[in-house]
Design goal:
The protein is mainly β and about 110 residues long. Helix content is about 0%, strand content about 50%.
Length: about 110
C-alpha cells in the first residue's frame, strides 16, 4: 500500500525559507520520477518541481531559482528547499510521482505572510 507523508510546512514571512520533506513507502522509490505539487484555494493543483531517478530536475517558471528539489533514495524521501518565499507561494504542498498516482497524502500547508 502506497503512503506519502509530507511535512515541514508552516507560517513564514516573505523572503523566508522552508524545507519540505516527503517520505514514500509501498513503492520502489528509487525508480520513480517524483514531484512536488501545490494547490491554493480555488485553483488547480500544479506540479512545481520534478526529479528523475538520475537527479535531473525541472521547475515551473514561477519557482525557478528559488526552489530546489532533491531526493534521498536510501531513505525514500524527497525534499523541497524553498527560499525567497512570496505570498503567492501560499498553498498546500503535496508530493507524488510524476505523472501522479490517484492516491494523495495529506499535504503540508505553507503560508507566506507578514
Amino acid at each position: 500500500q502506497v503512503q506519502l507523508v509530507e511535512s515541514g510546512g508552516g507560517l513564514v514571512q516573505p523572503g523566508g525559507s522552508l524545507r519540505l520533506s516527503c517520505t514514500v513507502s509501498g513503492r520502489l522509490f528509487r525508480f520513480d520520477v517524483m514531484g512536488w505539487y501545490r494547490q491554493a484555494p480555488g485553483t488547480e493543483r500544479e506540479l512545481v518541481a520534478r526529479i528523475i531517478p538520475g537527479a535531473v530536475t525541472t521547475y515551473v517558471d514561477s519557482v525557478k531559482g528559488r526552489f530546489t528539489i532533491s531526493r534521498d533514495n536510501a531513505k525514500a524521501t524527497v525534499f523541497l528547499q524553498m527560499n525567497s518565499l512570496k505570498p503567492e507561494d501560499t498553498a498546500t504542498y503535496y508530493c507524488n510521482t510524476s505523472p501522479a498516482l490517484s492516491y494523495w497524502g495529506q499535504g503540508t500547508q505553507v503560508t507566506v505572510s507578514s
